[in-house]
Specification:
This protein is an alpha+beta fold and 771 residues long. It has five domains: 20-126 and 162-199 and 270-316 and 392-397, no CATH class; 341-386, no CATH class; 407-581, Immunoglobulin-like; 585-718, Chondroitinase Ac, Chain A, domain 3, CATH 2.60.220; 728-763. Strands 2, 4, 5, 10, 12, 15 and 16 form a seven-stranded mixed beta sheet that branches. The termini are far apart. 40% of the residues are buried. InterPro entries: Protein_DD3-3_O-glyco (IPR053320). Residues 1-17 form the signal peptide. The chain crosses the membrane at residues 723-746. This is Protein DD3-3.
Length: 771
Amino acid sequence: MLPSLLAACLLVVFVRGDIYMHNPRGSNNRLDESGRARNNANRMFDSQNNNRGGYNVGSLYYYEGSALSIEWTNQHSCGDPNNHCEMVMQYMCGENVRDGVTTQTVPENPILCQNFDCNTDKRFGMHENYEYYTNCKYRNRNKGLFTADQKLRGNSAKYTRQNPGGTRRGYECPEERDHYPYWHPTPWKDIAVLTNNPERCKLYQSESENIKGRYACEVPEEYISSSRWRNYIIPSTEDECKAFRYPQNSPNGTRATWKQFPSHDLPPPDCRETDWSRDNHLGNGIGGYANTYNWTLPDLNHEQCVLRIRYNISTGEFNGWDAKVNSSLNQPLKPKTPGSLLDVGEKFGLDSQAAAERGYIYKQNPVVSMFPGEAGKIFNLQLAINTNQLGRVFQDRSHTFAVRRRPGNLKGKNIHNVNVRGKRGNIVQVYPAVEYDFTPNTVLMRNGDYVHFQWTGSNTNPNNNDGQGSAGTDRSNVLVLEKQRYPEGREKPETVHGQWGGNYPEHFKKATFLGLERDDLTSLATLNTAQFRGEMSELDDAGTYFDLGPRKVTGTGTYHYMCSRNNNFSNRSQKGRIVIGDSAVYGKKIGVMGGAIEFGEGEGVWFEKNTLGQLVNIQLEKMPSDKGDAMVKDKGGKMGVGDEYASEFLLINPQALRTREKFSVKLGIVRGVTDDIEMYRSADSENLRTWYKVPGASVNEGVVSFQTDKGGVYVARTVTNKAAIAGIVIACVIILVIIGGTVFYFRKHPDKLTQINTSISNVCRSCKSEV
């Protein structure tokens, strides 16, 4: 266990700044309420969010190794110097993890649960279990933490600066909720940490419970079962634990054990910069797209899992990472002071006396004098400061979902999950949730990949919310849009299926969508995988859940599709786009700390630390050489360098990318190529007329390696060995010169030729066995 002050240094000091998860559907503690506000903000966890947020219960399943797009909105900016921001994404699975069937909070007293076991009482939603909360409730809190002038009403881990009254929300431990990385064992497994300060990534990863176990004090069982034990406290430090005896103060009493609990034995979490978002805004990020993190689902097989995202928003009044900002600065009880002892006047050039006189004190709602002396007293300003909120954590959690093993026919295949986000209503009625949309809204796939259409919804939305079909119900379907009638954008009409700007579906007999069979098109349109007939003009007789299952896509092109129910023009538009090409597409957001995108056998790109100056969405497209050659010719260019293609084309996007330092690239070469190879680059796939040689390329074990500091289009070409050819030509010339000179000499001196012939004849006779 780290000493309190060191722990305080490692912790993130966790301003109304709500966060809402939209995919998977974030609950915000909702279950199936028919009102716009949730019924119980304390049902499962402490979100600190607005009561209007969240989606009603609905579960999905995903296959291991597939990519799940996590989408969210956060209110008070990230990636901006306006404040300090961290986001932590985690998941947990367990046999008793469940959504429940009531909005009541799971009881604290087992007498109120069936069979006196709240862990298995399925009426109540539950993530963390009863034992986890009980240990938290009676374990000493970390008393080295800065709590400002907040009056914590107890000494256990359920009392924190943000939760001074010790309010219970489900079986969540408030101290664990407010701090990361936490110093006691937890059931949560780390996915990713996004931070305004990527220099912290090394610490986040090394301290993650994924790779580093935690210590905790195990007290004797009889102590826990004692009728009086609730008056006691479980030690939280090694020294306290080793000094523990039961019964208390008995030298011969049973000792507690300071035990190390193993790590989760998982890779460290991904860590990078936060996605940029602006202040006072619950909406999309840069480019008008939702901020997302693509999570590759782990290799596990479990039916009850839950995902959580925590959002830390802190102001700059103090440095929560400074070890000096600790409990020694908390407001002392004696002698009583007007607030905490944190020096906030220093930043304004005020000594402690002047700061106190003018109200520059870190406390609740201070009144400050902006000007010194008597004049300042008539110009006082009261600041709306709540010391339990200037460093604050918000949270949202998903409803339960399953992660399943792949069947044999899907092993090694790329599976793309396509879901539906949003709920019934117009933008005002659903806020801070969102209206219907497909997510991801645009999916890039390779011919032969698999798409998994699956979504859920609710039948208990507010009945007066706008929408088609039966009041209060969510429904979605998929139909390809009517064929393109006029050019739209830069795409070629022959490669586009469906007019993106249209609102009518293509006639079913003419519809072509992803190369799917007619039965699958019927299922996507009429939801008949779980529904047999009924009144389906607006899908009312279908259920809220739909699953087509993974389907292989064939046929390149851009496919625009729609939902026929949720397309009330000017009010909502539920459309999606899938782009299928012959190229393999790989992508990842990489920032200052560096990262890699690997594919194939030993292929990929690698960015070292500080190669990039900011977060960049790196996209790689690997294109067969024949398709690449066609692309070159289509753009009016030609390969005027090299002889033959020695590799596939590699498009590094953004193609305008320029990095601080060079990054490494490895690309497989065509099997059997033995000629010399050179790498070439064109700056823009829209203009492939000019190609530049990439210096320093080398080949080893079928892979060409090089370094570059630019995006663009790259390809390897075989080249003739000019040195060898030059050597051969020179040798031939020398031989010809010798022959020509000899002929010329003997023509001038025929007697010399006669003498040589005579000498050769004599040598030949001397070699015979008989003369």
